[in-house]
Amino acid sequence: MKHDSSKSRSSKIQGEGDYASAKKYNEESSAFAHSGKVEQAAKKAAPRNAQEKSEMQHAESEGRSHAKNGENGSDLSLGSKPEKRAPGKKGSDQSAPGR
């Protein structure tokens, strides 16, 4: 009896390599995006008062403080986007040593 190792191997893939879950997520998120319910969901998720708005901004700021932005891991300010760099490049001085 021959054992189909490719089937058993793929069924054990988990985490970021869980292809079936990734496919399901992509299909469902695309369906939601095209459903016309995004605006409604955004309004429902919006803060209901000033205190809730402040708490949400604090939580976002706290989360962003853990995001890597450059070599020092500094936080991203609200609404900012990280600087785009070529892979493997670090720091603002990207010239070769001795230049």
Task: Describe the 3D structure.
This protein is mainly alpha-helical and 99 residues long. The protein is 46% helix and 0% strand. It contains 4 helices and no strands. The chain is extended.
Order of helices and strands: HHHH
Largest sheet: none
- Computed Rg: 22 Å
Number of strands: 0
Number of helices: 4
* Parts with pLDDT < 50 across at least 5 consecutive residues: none
Overall body shape? extended
Oligomer: single chain
Strand content: under 5%
Mean pLDDT: 75
Q: How would you classify the helix and strand content by structural class? A: mainly alpha
Distance between the termini: 65 Å
Give the helix proportion (percent range): 40-55%
Set down the secondary structure blueprint.
Blueprint: H1 5-12, H2 19-33, H3 38-45, H4 50-64
Summarize it.
The chain is an all-alpha fold.
Labels describing this entry:
99 residues; 0% strand; 4 helices; single chain; mainly alpha
